[in-house]
Amino acid sequence: MLFLNRRPTKKRLFKNQNMNNTKIFKTAFATVYPFYVQKAEKKGRTKAEVDTIICWLTGYDAESFQQQLDKAVDFETFFAEAPMLHPNVSKITGLICGYRVEEIEDKLMQKIRYLDKLVDELAKGRDMEKILRK
Fold first, then answer.
1. Nearest CA to 26 among 71, 68, 75?
2. Mind listing the pLDDT tens digit for each residue in 70-100?
3. Which of 54, 76, 75 is nearest to 65 (CA)?
C-alpha cells in the first residue's frame, strides 16, 4: 500500500504523457523555424546549417523550402508536401522530450521529433557529417 502514495517520477510522467498533442500539427512551421535557428546560433552554429538539416530530412531544395516558409504552412502540410524523407532517417535514434524518437507511433509527431533531435544535435556541437548520418 505504501507504493500508492509515491509521487510519480519525471520518467513515469513522461511515460504516461499523451503524445496525441495535435496543436503542434496546426502550428505554422514558419513560426517555429526562427526558434530552431536561434537555438543553433546561441551555440555558435549557423542558419545555413539549420537549413541544411531541414532540407536533408525533408528532401526540399532551398527554393521549395523558402516557398513553404513564405506560405506559412503548418507542420502537417510541411511534412505532407515534403518530397521525401531521407532514406537514413531510421538512423536517427535517442531521446527527445523524454521519448525515444524511433518508438513514436504517430508518424507526423515522429517526423517533428526527428527534426527536433537533429537541431538539438547541431546545438550540442555535433559534426554535420554525423548529424546527417553519413
1. 75
2. 999 999 999 999 999 999 999 999 998 888 9
3. 54
Give the helix/strand (H/E) hosting 10: helix 10-16
Cell numbers standing for residue 66: 523558402
Say how many residues make up the chain.
134
Domains delineated in the chain: 22-131 (1.10.8.290)
Instruction: Write down the number of H helices and E strands in the chain.
Output: 7, 2
**77, 64 in Cβ contact below 8 A?**
no
Residue indicated by cell numbers 538539438: 120
Give percent helix, percent strand, percent coil of the chain, each to the nearest 5: 65, 5, 30
Q: What's the pTM? A: 0.81
Question: What are the φ/ψ torsions at residue 77 (nearest 5 degrees)?
Answer: -70, -40
- How many whole angstroms separate alpha carbon 101 and alpha carbon 117? 8
CB 101 within 8 A of CB 110: yes
